[in-house]
């Protein structure tokens, strides 16, 4: 075997990689290593990561406990690829997930491992809901994001992403997410009415799929009472409720599941991103036992048994979910972010913010300023991305485990960036 | 942090995991470690693996070179999760893939990293073909398998898997795969006729998607001349040709790409399974540069930058594709399998075999015998699965790197299993 | 030739006709002849017709002028069946329609003759809108009715009728019709918002299809300002506006087109039912000249040139639309109906009414009473049907040409029928 | 009432009528009256009609017996428009259809009156088949024509007509019609194979819809044994068989139903075109009683009770189907056509012919000659149209009642037209 002298630079990607690439366009550094809340590029420059793998790194980069577990597993030749064979690593994950997560919350769910990405979990959830109910139609919400494969894309809101399908996206109807009309319209007025009106023309839905906080959609936060009303509406009309917790689960909002605060129990839950703990691909579809009508192999996928991810996932559950420290941490750090954003919004015109736990959105009335502020922050060593239908929101998803000092440091970079793009009006008099 | 005492046994999976699980039903052992062609269960029993992660482990389990590269990377805190940011690991993979694979074969492809599973690659290929052509319809082949998400499922043949969709699967039309009529019917008679007949009722297709050997479909092998005729037919009518090389790529048939032997150049190629080398999730969509019309982020996915998989993928390319040793090995071992199968088929009634390189199918006229033989082989420590529309084929996908002795040992287990379920007729006289 | 002695009685229909038959179940008489507002059964019993062929007989049964024109045409061997050949009858209709209807209203429309039924006209309108815009999706309204063929059914609201499709009905999204929330919600709040929000998930529509008064949907009346706002909304966003005037056109609401009162000019208009004048099948699709992008024969139909219907249609235009007498008549008789309904609603609890021109709905809070009242009215010699999602509305569509005495007579039958099923509360004291 | 002085000429149509018009482009005369096999234009020029309303005028134009019945009915104020109320005219038709057609053929069908056009009948047939089976997919045949509304269009072959849909046409798969491969391929090899192969990817069909002779498709004639094999194949696999007899029924091929000669009994039959007898719109859907699972009103249409058409339909059944004279006539005249075509094909190069009963196709290898010959024939006073995917076939559909002399006269016009466009090669010696 000969190893090539591999020279990598900026042009490597523009020459060889598809035009579909996107984050690297805003953050052109060539990254190399990462630890905790920091990423380092090949030149040794460090970046504070307020993006955290779009929510896949709730526990930060390369957490040492998880890292040790992973190395141990690789060193001792733990089986890497296992499809859905029974493996020790998978069994330990299942048992730990039961003991650390489901049992304490009195949740009774069967666990499916679809292909190891969020969109695979969503696709399996939609298929299952359709199989159980014998109906085709799914209700999604304005500004939802559920994934890029054809089934998931049909329930995703973004027009550009939808256009990429190349076929008409059907079997789904959008409904207004919480607060879509700024409180001026009754929450489920339209939805209930068309469900109950035999002449409405709405195909009776198999399921409703909802994010409790829409990350990609612009950090739109559903209230507990809205979620409860939605759950009740679904229950009353025998429509399944799917919570897509791919981005907001695993503690992002404080509790493990983002729906716990509302006291609801969805019929089906999807998890991915941070469930593997270490940034390794893994996804889960949880379903109430009576909904587990799959026949063996009816939905499968080669990498559904990604055993290194089971190992880090188990380690993460043991490290972070044996007590409520992380949940309390998220509340405290979330408050720090909210306070900083409050101050920014008070000082600068045309701004507002929203969020829950450690997902926070800083909203610019003039949409283009969000990207400009992020670009300036990047120059100052902070990674933060925009979201929302017009990219008008700076979306913060810092590691839940971030040091308070780092958090405050990052917020100050952001504050300065905002000050550049959207200066506070000069006071006429003091 | 407290670590639970996690007890795992058979009941862990039946209690907690969905009924969708399947391989673990045929192979009820609780697996723990693996190395090369062997898997070991928690009781220390060893199993020879002729299944190799359904083609995801062409280089065997936990290849030591790749393992070292992976451990090095994890130890030195190489970035694990990178979305589509530029990372050293990704750049090195791109350059190595260019140098080891594309350039020597004079192939000019841009590389897209969709979500890290085969079905993600197929979905992106279908979307791209539709975007490029402005047409919706896709031609697939009888007994094709392309994945379980809605777009991929629509071009997959298996009726049970299709039924799982819960919505009608549309925008696709099946055509007969090579030799579907045992040579009695002209290869593309039907396909060409309906394409060229303005009154045929066939929606004009955006693309044809084909496997050169259909693994899940029962090890159906397309001939070089059939593939060439297909490529020509597509070219003449401005239909894109997608080769789904998820299972048959990365050397399974000898050469890196399974279509090389036919001298064709598909417009789009999907790779996954063994491209990561170590069983870690990774997928690639290759497209001719002029087809790279994606807008940034139009198709994305959280785990599309699975950097540990880039590291093992690069190591695998360097180890196995710097010369033609592996290709020659595959030819030699493929011949051993074919010879053994020839002998079995001669000795036992109602059997035939087919294959190319190191994918081989042993076909039983009486379909149920295939599963019975695999069950007996499992008892003797061999993992082999069935495929085909009626599960009538024992499908062998041993690691390409298997020792010849192990290969011969496994084949003898199989031979004995066949002898039990389908005894050779007694000779009347010697 | 032998003519059979054909005996017809009640059992003829139950024995030979499909279970799909419906009106004959409520009105079991065996009808024979008809004239003006009256139908006579085989036993000579006369029925006053407040139903008028579901709006197909705006000029009553067998109007003598039209009858003479029809007999003349048949007697002189005028061509009966003409596909879309140029015939004198068709030319005279086209010119008369231009002179009597389009030119005086300064409407510039090209005329298409699709198959001679309303649903054919709607199908052609939807196809044309899709062809012009290159989009698939259509916006329809709650409780819309547009027809029973697959394209029309997809924009129809009634759940039972939709279920008959046997395939999922897609490419359409319902929006709330005027006053769907009893004035509590801004008219187009939801529609405008999802159109303008790039993240809403609504597929961008080719067209909006609307009835100005929803007959089948329960006599729901759109206000002029609502229609104007809809037209403006469509214009601003380059969405085509289709007014389905199949039931409400030809003077039902007073003016020839039901949208005239609102001062809007739809892009496409469908006409059928009363356009033939005599109850003979005919349908028109009107389109702005710049939308006439059909290629020859792209939409056709064997009976699109029903020449006897052209003859009666022309005669009807000449008789009824040479001046504004009919329009004024409709206003006057409409007021009589409204007054009678006002009185009924004042006297009886749980009732309301609505309507425009000579379409009127009498609404029962207790839905089943509507059918009961109609059954009683039938016994007294009045034909009136129910509509609305729960059949809670008695829908009146008397001939526009009805004698005032007959109108008042029919209303009194109805008043008495209501009194039986929904007695006025006894006054405690006078 | 004022009657306009209506001036009609060529420009009336080009000014006011949509570009979708088609027949009038080839036959620019302004037609006025018609009788038997002859049409007369406003200038008194007579045209022999070998087109007969695309099969809607099997009994010629304005048959005097039917004309008398129609005039009587109109004069005596027979009810014109009846929806699905029971009327004497409808009852007499039902009984006569039973007595003259169904009973003598021992056919047990319930009769549905959908909207009065062929495409309405086809739509209802497809809906019913889907409701009965719970499946969505329909098998159609290459070069089929079933109508222009969305459901019917999805099973129609012509690419230009399909493109007009503006949405992808799905839920249908074309199979090769009889003789599609000129006898070189087994009839149902492909169809049976994909039906029976669980891995074929074909969605299991609800029904097969077939024409016994494809008129629009180019006069493609199915053999009796092919139809029998198709019926058996459907029966064995519990797929419903729909014969679309809209164009080929009512005696066109000799017997009343075009499938009688094959000895099959379809599950569902559609009739329209000539069923009304006089060119008035009417359509029937016949279904085996056990398939009559419609709920009342589940499929409806305003003109489903076109009573004048019931009257002429009844008169036609009594006049033409009380004995077998017409059937024998059709055989004799069909033989005259075939003989004439034989002679033409012998004399002129690159020609062939096909047909059954009195539908006949004269096929040109050089497609454009067909239209050229028709244009010349038109100048000589003969109406004949082209069909086939490339308009390469002159399709003859003369009235079944045509005089032999007229038939021979028309054929001689055609023979001369062919001689002009495709001259016979000069003999080298006499």
TrEMBL record, chains A, B, C, D:
Transferase keyword on record: yes
Alphabetical list of CDD domains matching this protein: OAT_like
Pfam families per UniProt: Aminotran_3
E.C. number: 2.6.1.76
Pathway: Amine and polyamine biosynthesis; ectoine biosynthesis; L-ectoine from L-aspartate 4-semialdehyde: step 1/3
Keywords: Aminotransferase, Pyridoxal phosphate, Transferase
Coiled coil: none
PROSITE patterns hit by this protein: AA_TRANSFER_CLASS_3
InterPro entries, per the entry: Aminotrans_3 (IPR005814), Aminotrans_3_PPA_site (IPR049704), Dat (IPR004637), Ectoine_EctB (IPR012773), PyrdxlP-dep_Trfase (IPR015424), PyrdxlP-dep_Trfase_major (IPR015421), PyrdxlP-dep_Trfase_small (IPR015422)
Enzyme class: transferase
Cofactor(s) it depends on: pyridoxal 5'-phosphate
Source organism superkingdom: Bacteria
Membership in a protein family: Belongs to the class-III pyridoxal-phosphate-dependent aminotransferase family.
NCBIfam families: dat, ectoine_ectB, PRK09264.1
PANTHER family tied to this protein: DIAMINOBUTYRATE--2-OXOGLUTARATE AMINOTRANSFERASE, DIAMINOBUTYRATE--2-OXOGLUTARATE TRANSAMINASE
Protein known as: Diaminobutyrate--2-oxoglutarate transaminase
Annotated source species: Gordonia alkaliphila
This protein's encoding gene: ectB
